[in-house]
């Protein structure tokens, strides 16, 4: 039960990411697993005193996104100085993070500082991936967006193999102490997972309920046409949404890295379990996604104990009765 709840807390964060991205942009964020793996594996590479290959992909995406923004600015009649300003504004964060990573990697800095650098790297991927792959298709159908999302996932998985190789890595825990409570034994890492998960959930609640930008994102999720008429940019909303998603995925990768061995393609299965939780919640409810993720984690844990060869089958089979129930509840509608 304890292991399942711990894993479920991480799956819950990824379920929140799925709901967040889909609500605002109608994109089923399949590449979220790669963001998780990139964070954990980048930290493992930095622990060895090497520069993670993810920064080269970050720089390439930054250059491509900057050129796309510059070309778009030219088409909208901006002069050369404004176009250059747009180009530098897009590329500057990635250049700064890459320079920091190259400088810090050989120094064997404390684990926490390396983790913060990895969070910065992966967070920078969010808006760049949105700009390069999705922004120009924001009015496309959900099916087209799903196909593009699958393509991004496959590309990032292949690049993960190129950057990190086929070998798996396990990161050191951020808190190695352990505590006993009757028959239960809590590790410091487990307590950290619960604390950060609850902290992120509370921070998201504050952001969406109390800030103007968060309310704008909620409005975009409810009525995309209406927010455009009110002067809220759907592109800016997508940018912010992907930045938040990448941040949560990065933290999730660092939390799960010490508890299991991460390979270049491990993020896909981890992300799928978050997707199962989001589906159970109907791709709309943040509390529902978190509670569903806890249930998924517990079922996975007990399934691993009783029938370890079928634990993945047991978890993913949960989708079938949920979809059947939702289908029956929704009823049938004739197309006009």
Structural commentary:
The chain has 336 residues and is mainly α. It has one domain. The protein is built from 14 helices and two strands, in the order H-H-H-H-H-H-E-E-H-H-H-H-H-H-H-H. It has helices at residues 2-25, 32-47, 54-75, 80-104, 111-134, 142-164, 188-210, 212-222, 224-229, 234-256, 266-280, 286-306, 311-317, 319-330, and strands spanning 178-181, 184-187. A hairpin with a 2-residue loop joins strand 1 and strand 2 (184-187). The longest helix has 25 residues, at 80-104.
Give the fraction of residues assigned to helices: over 70%
Structural Rg: 20 Å
* Tally of separate domains: 1
Straight-line distance between termini: 49 Å
| pLDDT averaged residue by residue | 86
Number of DSSP helices?
Answer: 14
Read across the widest sheet, the strand sequence of neighbours is 1-2
- Determine the strand fraction and express it as a percent band: under 5%
**How do the helices and strands follow one another from N- to C-terminus?**
HHHHHHEEHHHHHHHH
- Give a short account of the largest sheet: 2 strands, antiparallel
Structural class computed from helices and strand pairing: mainly alpha
| Shape designation | globular
Low-confidence stretches: none
The assembly state of the depicted protein chains is single chain
Find the count of extended strands (DSSP E, 2+ residues): 2
Give the helix/strand layout.
Layout: H1 2-25, H2 32-47, H3 54-75, H4 80-104, H5 111-134, H6 142-164, E1 178-181, E2 184-187, H7 188-210, H8 212-222, H9 224-229, H10 234-256, H11 266-280, H12 286-306, H13 311-317, H14 319-330
Antiparallel strand pairs: 1-2
């Amino acid at each position: 039960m304890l292991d399942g709840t711990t894993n479920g807390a991480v799956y819950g964060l990824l379920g929140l990411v799925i709901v967040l991205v889909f609500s605002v942009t109608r994109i089923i964020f399949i590449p979220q697993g790669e963001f998780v793996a990139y964070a954990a594996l980048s930290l493992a590479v930095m622990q060895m005193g090497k520069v993670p290959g993810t920064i080269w992909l970050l720089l390439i995406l930054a250059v491509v996104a900057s050129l796309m923004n510059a070309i778009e600015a030219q088409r909208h009649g901006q002069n050369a100085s404004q176009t250059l300003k747009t180009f530098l504004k897009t590329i500057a964060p990635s250049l700064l993070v890459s320079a920091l990573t190259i400088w810090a990697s050989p120094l064997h800095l404390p684990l926490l500082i390396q983790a913060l650098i990895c969070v910065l790297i992966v967070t920078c991927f969010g808006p760049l991936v949105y700009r390069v792959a999705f922004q120009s298709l924001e009015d496309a159908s959900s099916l087209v967006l799903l196909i593009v999302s699958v393509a991004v996932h496959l590309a990032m998985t292949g690049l993960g193999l190129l950057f990190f190789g086929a070998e798996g890595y396990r990161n050191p825990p951020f808190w190695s102490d352990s505590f006993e409570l009757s028959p239960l034994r809590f590790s410091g890492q487990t307590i950290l997972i619960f604390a950060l998960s609850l902290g992120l959930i509370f921070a998201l609640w504050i952001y969406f309920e109390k800030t103007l930008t968060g309310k704008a994102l909620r409005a975009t999720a409810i009525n995309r046409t209406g927010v455009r008429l009110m002067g809220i940019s759907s592109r800016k909303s997508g940018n912010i949404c992907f930045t938040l998603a990448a941040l949560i995925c990065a933290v999730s990768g660092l939390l799960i890295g010490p508890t299991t061995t991460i390979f270049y393609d491990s993020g896909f299965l981890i992300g799928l379990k978050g997707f199962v939780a989001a589906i159970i919640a109907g791709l709309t409810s943040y509390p529902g996604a978190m509670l569903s993720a806890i249930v998924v984690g517990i079922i996975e844990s007990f399934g691993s104990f009783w029938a370890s060869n079928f634990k993945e089958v047991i978890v993913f089979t949960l989708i079938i009765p949920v979809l059947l129930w939702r289908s029956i509840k929704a009823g049938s509608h004739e197309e006009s």
